[in-house]
Every structure is written in C-alpha cells, then in structure tokens.
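Work Package 3 (structural annotation) set out to generate three-dimensional models for the target panel prioritized at the project kickoff. During this period the team completed the workflow that converts sequence records into discrete structure tokens, so that structures can be stored uniformly alongside our sequence database. As a representative example, we reproduce one entry of 725 residues exactly as it appears in the project archive.
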Amino acid sequence: MRRGIVLMLLTYGKLMLAAPAVISRFILVDQFGYLCTAEKIAVIRDPQVGFNAAESFSPTTGSNQYEVRRWHDDVVVFSGSIKKWNSGLTHSQSGDKVWWFTFTGLTTPGEYYIWDKGKQVGSVKFRIADDVYANVLRDAVRVFYYQRCGHAKSVPYAGSGWTDAACHLGSLQDLDCRLVTNPVPATARDLHGGWHDAGDYNKYVNFTWSPVTQLLLAYLENPGVWTDDLNIPESGNGLPDLLDEVRYQLQWLLRMQEDDGSVLSIVGVQNYASASPPSADVAQRFYGPATTSATYTGAALFALAAVVYNQVGLTAFADSLYTAAVAAWNWAEANPNVTFYNSGIVGAGEQETDDYGRMVRRVAAAIALYQRSGNTAYRSIVDAHYTQFHLMQWGYVYPFEGTEQDMLLYYTKVPGATTSVVNAIKNTYTNSVKTTNPDNYPAYKNKTDAYRAHLASGNYTWGSNSIKCVQGLIFTNMLEYNYNPSNATKYRHAAAGFLHYLHGVNPLATVYVTNMYSAGADSCIREIYHAWFHDGSPLWDRTGVSTYGPAPGYLAGGPNPYYSLDACCPSGCWSYNYLCNPADVTPPLGQPVQKAYKDWNTTWPQNSWEVTEPSMGYQANYVKLLSWFVGSSCNSPPMRPVSRDEKLRLLVYPNPVTSHLYILVQGMIGQQASLSIRDVRGRLIYQNADLSLPASLEIGSWPSGLYVVQVQTVGRVMSQQFIKH
C-alpha cells in the first residue's frame, strides 16, 4: 500500500514538474502548432534596435544545446544546434539578432516545447497534429457572424460574452434607408443584412469584392475542409458554414440591386457612430447611388457565386444570382462612367474605384459569366483586356493585387478558356514567383527574412497582416494551379511561414488574432480598434481588463511604420491634446517596420485604426490562407466507424482520373451516403441518393474537365474536386 502511495506521489510530482519552469518569450514557435510534415523552425531573438532594445537574450550556441521536449513529462524527443541567421547580423526589419532551430524531423503528434539547456528556459507549448489550426479556422470564420448587420448575436452561437440584439433595424435605419443625396420617403429602401465592413458599421459594395471573392475561391480550392458545424445559426443545414456566411452577404448585395440591374454603392452614416454594442447605434443611415464600379462588382460576385452554389446543389439560389449578374452586367455596359465619391458625405472611407478598378471588376465578371453561361462574348472581353492587368503589364506578382491576380488565374481553369491567354497568364505568374520578383520565392530560398515571412519594407503598410496573408497565398496559388510541381513542398513551406508569423513567430512574440487562448495561444493581441470593442468599454475593451475583451478570431491590421498621430497634434486637438504625446505611441512610432505595432485601441487623435483595426478583407485573406493548412499530414490510423462528433475526410482518387473514380470517406466504412457530381458549370452529371461507400464509378466516357463530388452523410456535407482527362 505504501509503495503504491509513493509511486502515485512520484507520478503526480512528475506531472506537476512537467513543462518548462521558466518560459522565455525570446524562443518563438507557432503558438498553435504544426502539421506533422510541416517545416518546423523555432526562431530565437535578441533585440538590438527598437522599443525593446534594452531586453537581451544570449541563447546557448553549443552543439545539441536545444531540445524539443514533451510538455507533460519533459522527455527529450529531438535535439540539435541553433544556427545564426545571416552570420549574426542584425535584421533591419525587426532590429533583432536571430537564430534558427530546425526540428522538421519531429513528426510525431503530441504537445511539446523548445528547451535551451544552457539557459534552462523553454518556449510556450505547441502541438504537432492534423488539427492544430482547426479551432483557429473555426473562430476566424465565425468573425463574419459577429460582423453581421441586422442579425441578433445570441446564445449559443455568440457565447455568453458577445451577445447582442439585431442592430440597425430602427427608425430611418436599414429597413427604411434613404438616398443620401435625396433623403425623402420616396427613396426609401430595405437594405438590411450584410457584414459591417471593418471596425465601423458601414457597408460598402466595392469593398466586399475582395472578401467575397476570396472566400468563394477558398471553398473551391479546398472544399473538403469546410464543415457544417462552426456553431452559427445555419450550422447543420447541410451547407458548409463558410458558404452560409457568404450567402448572408450575398443576400444583402441582392437587396442593393435596383430593378434596372444597377447596384447601389454604400450604406452608412453621415457622422461616425461609435455606439457599443452595435444594437445601441440609433444614428440615421443612408445609402449612396448606383455606380458603374459597384454594379460591375455585383456582377462579378453574383456570377462567381452562381457557379459555386450550383456546385453545392443550391440551384434556385444560384439561378437567382446568375439572373442578377446578367442584369448588373447589362446596366454597367450601358452606363460605363457613373461614379459617386462619398468622402465627406457618407461612410468612413472612399469607396469609388478608379478606371483600373472598374476594368478589373468588369473582366472578373466576364470570367465568371463565361464559366456559368458558356457565352463566348464574355470570353472575348477577357481576352481583349487581360493584358491591361498589372500582372501582365509589369510581369510582376505582388501582394497588393491578390484578388486581381487570383481572378486571372481562375480563368486559366475555366473550360474553353483561350489557350494562348491561359499560357500567357501561367508563364507570367510562374516566372514572377520563381525568379523575377525577389520578394517571392527568392526571398524564401535566400532566407531574406529572419522571421521567415518576407515582405519588402515598403509593403509594411496599413493592413500589413493582410498583405502577409496574400504573400503566403501567392505560394499556395503555385500549389492550386500545379505550377512548377517539382518545387511544391517548398512553396507549401514558404506559405506556412506567413501563418507562423501571424501565430507568434514575430518580434512581438504575439499572435495577431484576438482572444485565441481557448484555441491554444499563449499571448494574443488583446485590443482592436472596433466600435463594439471600443476603448474604455467595461465589457469588451482589453482582454484581461474588461469582462470579456473582443470576440475571438479577429485578425488585426498589423505593423504600420507609416502610422502617425493625427494632424491636429500637438496643440490643435482641443481637450484631447493630452493624447498627442509621441511617447505614448512609441511603438508604433520610430520602430523597425516589424515592430511598428502597439496593442491598443485609443481613437482620435491617436488614430489606432491605422494599426489595429480589422476588416473583412483582411479576415478573408487570413481564412483562405489558414484553409490550406487544415488537413491530414500525420500518420492516420486505419479507417474505423466514428461518432458524429469526429472528423470525416472525403477522399476522391486517382486525381486526375481517366476511367475509374474511387470515392470513400476516411473514418466511415459500409455506411450509406447521398452522392452528387456536378461539372464546372454546376450541371448535375451523376446522382445517387443511397450509395454504399467506398464506391467505384466508371467515368471513362465523361467529357474532360473539372468536376465536383459532394457527399452527404451522418449530417455532414463534404466536397472535393477532381479532373477528368
């Protein structure tokens, strides 16, 4: 008996002593973790320049002085030596000296930390597993739910901390919205719904082009990762929750369309409203008139969405979208120069595009309309104007035109696309990623960035975290379109580096996403500039100080070396002059570009929105990048029956296929499923409502092209693309 007690105490004591006694914020890992086959490199930092230059860390540099240890019992599972970045020079973008510790060879799932033997300090906990980003992706997508306008946020969907009644449905608001240039009852429109664009409560048609496009492409690129169980009101309805969220935005966009096909431009307030929560905002709201750019935006989004929703079986909704797309296209073609510049009139940001922006949206609309309809008149417009895109004019792939570039790439997969145009786009894109732009693959190959997520210094602007995402997506495009396949693994590693940066491998050792502690983060940003989660709110201001902090999952804008105090400073801000002290905003003032960030949300005249404000465009880029790293890379156990709560995985192979197609759901054998297969235009090619899986189909007689398999079983909907040769 006594021996059993001693063993129990020894075991308990070991568990209590497990994990590092001292955690160092100088040893950086992705705080959520890594997929099994990921490139795994911890970054060790020693600040030299910037606000934290007085801090110091000298890592142990001898042979095998760094280890990976299991979190729960301290067992050493990997050891090695660290290597100086760039021969020990200070990294100019961060102001840090840096070392790398590579442990890519560790592929066993589990919970771990990095250990410096000489210093006797360790990193925060991280995991190696298939699902390290699954909860992160869940929370990142749920941000769109929190941004819904005119929709109650209620338990259980919002969690007890972020509930709110439906907003902007009061007198002279979105149910009775008036034209800002003629706000009389005759101009009233019901324009409720949609997403608040950013930290304010305005809604812009042109600004929604990028986020909706990117979310639709995110679904098409990785349909198997999107589940129907993210805990939003539509969960369990048989449609992936991502597409439910996009549909909510599209329904608002349909309300913005006039009977003649034109699309209104904006819904917002004339004077900035900052009520918290959103339902407390009672300011009158107005809409801007229809414009050519907004109408081309509507045409592009309606048409692309019509393709996607056809593929998932929502044919009636898809047909309505296609009808709206054609109507919008016809109006914009007949009215090519209708503009509305809203600055100083309504909303918080100028929504009108320039001529280039209208051209891009026109071509994007033509691409999707051609795919849906097969009408070669649309293809002719694409072929006549694709060379006007900056990608083709400059031969230059860069992260400020991610959506523009992505739509040209998308055209290369559309059946019937002109071969010479497809080859020109492919060659231009591939060459710029591989060699001609040193900020793309050459930066990864040459280890240009000490933190392994290179942007040129001039590209750290307002919204730099989103630009980081797009730079990562440049590499995933090489995977999606199978360009330079011999280098695919390196492109995947390069893309993952941008996620790791956002997840804590950065000079601030901070996850740039709000309130992600429950998903495994150790140190997150705690404030963002947002009207709901505003400065001074007793409920939603700073995590750990206010009752709840901001809702989980928001990507902040990011480091911005171009930040400045408002022009009224230092003495023209009336009673707010006390906020003009540069010392209070250093950082972000006067820092190396990667340290130009402050975790705060003070409004005018400190204007924290230039650094910490989220936006749906940023969020969509982050969600799309994340989706590339949600999946299986570990040694999976044999297939077995699973409960409803466990994750299923649709497998369709071989891919590409010439004759026999095999379909199975990993984790499920011998159960019945409903199967449908549609072509790229959404036409139903095959259907079986009671199919036993695994299944084999003979498709040798089918036309060559891209197809989408959809399987519905045990309350799940899963989709996967395949190519028929």
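The first helix runs from residue 2 to 17.
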